[in-house]
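Tokenised fold entry reproduced for everyone:
>
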Amino acid sequence: MTAPAVIFVCGRNAVRSPMAEALYRRLVGEGARASSCGVEPAGMADGYMISVMAELGEDLSDFDCRDLADAREDPADLVVCLAADVDAEARAFAEKRGARYALWPIEDPTRADGDRFLKLAAYRAARDAIEARISALGAESA
């Protein structure tokens, strides 16, 4: 079975959704169709996100944040929302597209308190949670 084309949505398209896009492509492999966007995109990708993805060999230093309108032409069998606070907007986006919808509420690592070590730990936890959900999605599709 072919892996679904997925659009990952979060609030700002600066942390969780770019991680998900890259991890989906990494886990699914050649032919993976994934993109990401945010409801209110940030101006640039988050530096901690770039660091924890670089640990896996994924270079997201040139990632451009996009909004829902930017993703309206992207292929989508499934829209995955990673932020519960934008569930309604992401669900409406999926419905307009005629795509299946899933809410994967991943904790926002930008809200982590503490020093650089603690913040990186929060970003790694979010990355690893996203990776686990994508792996489970792959198992469901097989």
User: Anything to note?
Assistant: DSSP finds four helices and four strands in the chain. The longest helix spans residues 116-141. Strands lie at 6-10, 34-38, 78-81, 100-103.
